[in-house]
Amino acid sequence: MLKGLAITPPVLGRISIGKVIEKNGKRLPEKDDQFTITSQVQGRDGWLLHPLNDELRKTPEEKLRSIPIRLLFNEPDLNFRAEYSLFDRTTGRPLCVGNGETCKRQCDDGIKSLPCPSPDGCLLAKGNACKPYGRLNVAIGDDDPLGSFVFRTTGFNSIRTLTARLQYLQAISGNRLSCLPLELRLRGKSTRQSHGTPIFYADITVRSGVSMEEALLAAKQLNESRQSAGFDQAALDTAARLGLSNGCFEDSEEDSGAIVEEFFSVTDMESTNSLAPASSTPPKPTLTEKLELLATDTQIS
Question: Which residue range is the domain that position 53 belongs to?
Fold first, then answer.
């Protein structure tokens, strides 16, 4: 296994809440009130739709607000990984990834492990530069039991809800999370910050029309069937954890374009990258210099 390369679950396509539109010659993220399932192929007009995007709709006009899924792993944090992430908004490459206690930060002399004060207490996180960032891998259909579709999110509501649901479902199913018949569902809510405008987030429940008792019984039966066939779920979870821990940062350079396009508006990128000083003022420190300064301060203290 190549060291320094995070081995992530195989991806067949992407799930998003929203789309990218072109406005005044610029490609901008736009929120939506339905899921969109795309392939990994990008054309001139954006990501090409996956056949499942239409197959899961009862009618062509119906909005896709629920997707029948299964999870690959029994451990919640293997299915859904969430961290505080600071990205270079020009390239989309991660510069610092932390969990609120420790972080791995890209510095000029390599990657360093440092304390993570969370975005509220971090100097580098000013201007919403550091966000909670989660990646959920789910299986859709039975064609490829080890292939997945990835749902990326920087939304607090999605991250908080998905984390809680997966932990609860693992607990009540007796650690049979990968055997439960589940559904990725879109929910809406209004908050004071949204000024009454609905915002949408992802949730996971048992499938529509299936009671919790029926789902738990089905999970138990599927688990027994897999064991009799020699399917070793514990070994799969162990292999996944080793693969994910093999690299410092999960997202590769190939993912950078999708990350920037999906989560950062042009205003975000311009505010982050406009470091050119006026002629009468001293140069502002670059992002790399800030990282080095913060790393030095942390080591001294």
Answer: 11-274+282-300
